[in-house]
Backbone:
C-alpha cells in the first residue's frame, strides 16, 4: 500500500549499469578506431620504407657514361616490392622532368622533389597507388643533370593486412566490451547491495520498532541513515509522549468520574420523582461508558508500551480464559447473557499474560455489549491447528463489508448504532495478536452472530 | 552453311588484321557459337591434344589458335587487346608486365600454388628448363660438357671445330631468349664469359628453338645454348642425333603462362579454357610429346613470378644489356 504512494524514478542499479555499459561501448569503439588507425599507420610506414628503399636503389644505379644517363638498377629494386597479394608496381625514371623510362601513366608529383624520398598517393589506371619519389644530381665530365625516380605500388596487400588487423582489433574490442559489461554487473551489485540491505532491514522492522540503525553502512549512506535515525528518534519520542499523555489523561479522568458516579448514585437514592431518577440513571450509564473508554485508552497505551517489551511466559490458555470468564460472569448476568466456556484440556501458549488477558477481556466485553438479552456468548479454547480463543455471540454480527477496517483505532461498525463504545476493543486485541506473531480473525456465524478468533 | 560463313568471317578477319601468323589452326567440334582467339608462342603440336579435348567438352566453343614469337605477341596484343581472348607465352617477363599494366582479367582458380600464379590473372601451366643441346656426332668419343664452365673449356679446346658452328637465341628478337639471357646474367658471371667465347668463335643467332634444333640435327651447328628443353625433348624425329644437357652448375627454369585478356570478347569461355589448361597440366604425368606439367609439390622454378621480372624490360636496362650482349656475341 505504501509503494503506491512512492513515486518511482528509474532504478539506481539500471542507471549505474547503463552508464557503465555505455561508457564501455564508447570506449570499445574509440579503442577500435585508435588501434586500427595506429596499425594502418604502421602498415603504411612499412610500405613507404620499402618504396623508399626501391627508389634509392634505382637512384644509386644512375650514372652518366659518355654523356648518356644509364640506370642499371638491380633486380632487387623491384624484387623487394613483391607482396603476398602480388601488388602491381609502376615506376618512372626522369631526367630533368623528361621521362627516360617507365610508365608515362605515373606522373612525377608536382613541385620540387627533394633528395630525400617523399610520399604521395596517386591514381594509376583507376587504382589507388602509394608513390615514393626522390631525386639525385648527376655530375658528368661536362654536364650536370637531375635524375628523378618515382616508384608506386598498389595497396592490395596493405588492405589485406588492414582487414586482418581490423578483424583482430574488433574481436579484441568485443572481448573488452564483454568483460567490462560483466564487471559493471558486479560493480553495480557491489554498489547497490548495502542500499538493498538497508532497505530490507528497514522493511523487515515491525511497526513499533523505532530503534536506531546500528549496522555499518557506506559513508555515502551515513546522511540518510542518520536522518532516518533522527526521524525515528523524534517519532519514538512523540509517540511515547502521546501515549503517556493519553494514559495520564485517562487516569486523571477516571478518578473524578468515579467521584461523580458515587454522587449520582447517592442522589438517585434520595430523589423520588420518576423523571429525575431516569435522568440520573442515564447520567450514571454515561459515566460508566466514559470510565470504560478511559480504561480502554489506558489498556491501549499499556499494550503499545508492553508490545515492545514482551514478557513471555508459558501459560495455559484454557485456565487463563476460564478465570476471565468467571470474573466477567456477574456483568453477564446483569445483562441476562449466559457465558459458556468450552475447552479441551490445557492449551500451552508462550506469551505476555497481562496482554493476553487484556485482549480477551476486551473481546468478551465487546460480545457482551452487542449480545441481545437472553442469549449465549460462547468462549471456546482450541489447541489445533493453532492455539486459539474464539468468542461467538448471537448478536447482529459484523457488517460484511469493511470487516478488516474494524480493527483500526476508533473504527466502529455501521450497525453499532445506539451502542456506546470507544472503538478500541478490537484494536487492542489485534495489537496483542500482532505482538505475539498471531492473528485476529473476524467472521460471522451461519446464524448471523459475530465470531472473533484470537490465534497464536 | 554456317561453317562456310564462319570460314568467310575468319578469312575476312585475317585480311583485316593483315597479320602473318607463324601458324594458325581452328579447332572445333559440333556447331560452335563462339570462337576463342588464342594468341600463343607455343607450337600448336604441344597444345593440340589439350585444345581438342576442350572443344570436345565444349562443342559450343571453337578455338582459333594463332602462333607468334613472344616479342611479337606482346606488341600485337598491346595494340589490340580486345581482339584476343587468351594470351599464352613463354616470356614470363612480358606476360607479367601485361598483367601489371592491367591487360589481364582475374580468373577464379584454386588448383595452382601461389608461386605458379600472379594476381590471380597469370597462370603457369608448365615448368621448363633451358638446356644446352649438342650434336652427338660432334662430341663422338669425347666428354660431354655438363656445366657452362665445361662447355667453355670444350669450345676453347677445339676452336677451329666450333668456329661458326654454334647457335643461341637472338635476344633482340626473342622474348624468351632475352628472359633466359638476363636470368643467366643475373645468376652468374659465367654467362658473360661463355658469350664472349661463343662470340669469339662466331655464333649463329636464331629467333626460335625450332630452327636451332633443325640446324643442330642436320649438323649445321654442333652446340645450341639455352634451347627450350621441352622443345628438344619433343623432337623424337631427331632424338638420335642430339643430346640434351641440363647444366648442373645453375639451372634456369621458366614457366609457360596463360592469361585472359581484360577485354576478352568471350570472358567466360576464356576462363573455362584457362581452367581446363591448368587442370590438364597440373600434378599429372608428362605425356609423350607434351609439355612438362606443374608439380605443386616441387620447389618452384628459378625464375619467379614477381614484379622484378620487369627489371630487364626497362628501356634503359634493356639498352644497357643489349649493348653488353652485342659487345660479347657479335665480334
Residues:
Amino acid at each position: 500500500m505504501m509503494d503506491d504512494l512512492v513515486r518511482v524514478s528509474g532504478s539506481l542499479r539500471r542507471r549505474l549499469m547503463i552508464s557503465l555499459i555505455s561508457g564501455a561501448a564508447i570506449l570499445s569503439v574509440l579503442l577500435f578506431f585508435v588501434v586500427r588507425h595506429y596499425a594502418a599507420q604502421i602498415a603504411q610506414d612499412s610500405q613507404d620504407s620499402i618504396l623508399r628503399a626501391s627508389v634509392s636503389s634505382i637512384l644509386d644505379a644512375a650514372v652518366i657514361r659518355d654523356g648518356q644517363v644509364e640506370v642499371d638498377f638491380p633486380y632487387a629494386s623491384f624484387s623487394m616490392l613483391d607482396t603476398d597479394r602480388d601488388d602491381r608496381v609502376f615506376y618512372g625514371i626522369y631526367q630533368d622532368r623528361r621521362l627516360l623510362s617507365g610508365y608515362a601513366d605515373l606522373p612525377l608529383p608536382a613541385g620540387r622533389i627533394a633528395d630525400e624520398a617523399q610520399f604521395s598517393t596517386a591514381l594509376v589506371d583507376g587504382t589507388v597507388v602509394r608513390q615514393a619519389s626522390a631525386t639525385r644530381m648527376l655530375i658528368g665530365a661536362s654536364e650536370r643533370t637531375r635524375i628523378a625516380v618515382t616508384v608506386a605500388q598498389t595497396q592490395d596487400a596493405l588492405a589485406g593486412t588492414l582487414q586482418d588487423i581490423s578483424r583482430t582489433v574488433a574481436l579484441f574490442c568485443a572481448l573488452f566490451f564483454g568483460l567490462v559489461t560483466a564487471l559493471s554487473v558486479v560493480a553495480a551489485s557491489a554498489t547497490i547491495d548495502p542500499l538493498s540491505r538497508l532497505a530490507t532491514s528497514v522493511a523487515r522492522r515491525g511497526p513499533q520498532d523505532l530503534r536506531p540503525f546500528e549496522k555499518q553502512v557506506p559513508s555515502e549512506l551515513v546522511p540518510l541513515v542518520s536522518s532516518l535515525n533522527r526521524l525515528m528518534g523524534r517519532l519514538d519520542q512523540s509517540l511515547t509522549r502521546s501515549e503517556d499523555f493519553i494514559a495520564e489523561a485517562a487516569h486523571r479522568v477516571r478518578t473524578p468520574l468515579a467521584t461523580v458516579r458515587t454522587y449520582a448514585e447517592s442522589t438517585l437514592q434520595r430523589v423520588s420523582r420518576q423523571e429525575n431518577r431516569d435522568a440520573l440513571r442515564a447520567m450514571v450509564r454515561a459515566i460508566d461508558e466514559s470510565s470504560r473508554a478511559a480504561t480502554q485508552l489506558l489498556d491501549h497505551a499499556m499494550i503499545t508500551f508492553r508490545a515492545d517489551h514482551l514478557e513471555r511466559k508459558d501459560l495455559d490458555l484454557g485456565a487463563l480464559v476460564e478465570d476471565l470468564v468467571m470474573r466477567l460472569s456477574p456483568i453477564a448476568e446483569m445483562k441476562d447473557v449466559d457465558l459458556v466456556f468450552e475447552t479441551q484440556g490445557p492449551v500451552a501458549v508462550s506469551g505476555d499474560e497481562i496482554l493476553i488477558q487484556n485482549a480477551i477481556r476486551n473481546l468478551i466485553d465487546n460480545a457482551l455489549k452487542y449480545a441481545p438479552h437472553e442469549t449465549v456468548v460462547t468462549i471456546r479454547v482450541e489447541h489445533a491447528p493453532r492455539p486459539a480463543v474464539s468468542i461467538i455471540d448471537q448478536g447482529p454480527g459484523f457488517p460484511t463489508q469493511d470487516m478488516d477496517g474494524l480493527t483500526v483505532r476508533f473504527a466502529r461498525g455501521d450497525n453499532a448504532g445506539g451502542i456506546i463504545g470507544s472503538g478500541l476493543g478490537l484494536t487492542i486485541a489485534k495489537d496483542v495478536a500482532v505482538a505475539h506473531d498471531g492473528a485476529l480473525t473476524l467472521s460471522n456465524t451461519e446464524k448471523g452472530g459475530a465470531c472473533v478468533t484470537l490465534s497464536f | 552453311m554456317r561453317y562456310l560463313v564462319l570460314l568467310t568471317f575468319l578469312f575476312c578477319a585475317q585480311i583485316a588484321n593483315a597479320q602473318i601468323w607463324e601458324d594458325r589452326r581452328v579447332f572445333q567440334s559440333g556447331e560452335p557459337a563462339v570462337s576463342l582467339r588464342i594468341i600463343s608462342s607455343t607450337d600448336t603440336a604441344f597444345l593440340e591434344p589439350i585444345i581438342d579435348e576442350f572443344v570436345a567438352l565444349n562443342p559450343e566453343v571453337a578455338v582459333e589458335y594463332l602462333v607468334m614469337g613472344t616479342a611479337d605477341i606482346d606488341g600485337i596484343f598491346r595494340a589490340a587487346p580486345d581482339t584476343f581472348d587468351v594470351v599464352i607465352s613463354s616470356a614470363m617477363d612480358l606476360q607479367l608486365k601485361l598483367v601489371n599494366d592491367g591487360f589481364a582479367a582475374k580468373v577464379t582458380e584454386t588448383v595452382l600454388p601461389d608461386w605458379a600464379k600472379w594476381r590471380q590473372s597469370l597462370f603457369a601451366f608448365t615448368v621448363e628448363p633451358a638446356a644446352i643441346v649438342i650434336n652427338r656426332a660432334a662430341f663422338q668419343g669425347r666428354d660431354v660438357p655438363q656445366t657452362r664452365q665445361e662447355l667453355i673449356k670444350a669450345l676453347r679446346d677445339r676452336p677451329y671445330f666450333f668456329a661458326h658452328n654454334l647457335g643461341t637465341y637472338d635476344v633482340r628478337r626473342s622474348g624468351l631468349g632475352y628472359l633466359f639471357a638476363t636470368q643467366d646474367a643475373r645468376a652468374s658471371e659465367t654467362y658473360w664469359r661463355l658469350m664472349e667465347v661463343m662470340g669469339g668463335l662466331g655464333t649463329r643467332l636464331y629467333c626460335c628453338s625450332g630452327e636451332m634444333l633443325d640446324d643442330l640435327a642436320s649438323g649445321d651447328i654442333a652446340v645450341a645454348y639455352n634451347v627450350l628443353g621441352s622443345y628438344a625433348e619433343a623432337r623424337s624425329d631427331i632424338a638420335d642425333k642430339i643430346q640434351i644437357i641440363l647444366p648442373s652448375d645453375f639451372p634456369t627454369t621458366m614457366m609457360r603462362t596463360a592469361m585472359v585478356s581484360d577485354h576478352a570478347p568471350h570472358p567466360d569461355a576464356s576462363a573455362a579454357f584457362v581452367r581446363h589448361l591448368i587442370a590438364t597440366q597440373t600434378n599429372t604425368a608428362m605425356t609423350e610429346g607434351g609439355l612438362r606439367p606443374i608439380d605443386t609439390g616441387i620447389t618452384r622454378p628459378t625464375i619467379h613470378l614477381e614484379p622484378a621480372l620487369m627489371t630487364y624490360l626497362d628501356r634503359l636496362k634493356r639498352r644497357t644489356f643489349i649493348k653488353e650482349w652485342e659487345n660479347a656475341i657479335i665480334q
Notes: Chain A touches chain B at residues 69-79, 81-82, 84-90, 93, 100-102, 125, 127 (CB under 8 Å). Residues 12-60 of chain A form the longest helix (49 residues).
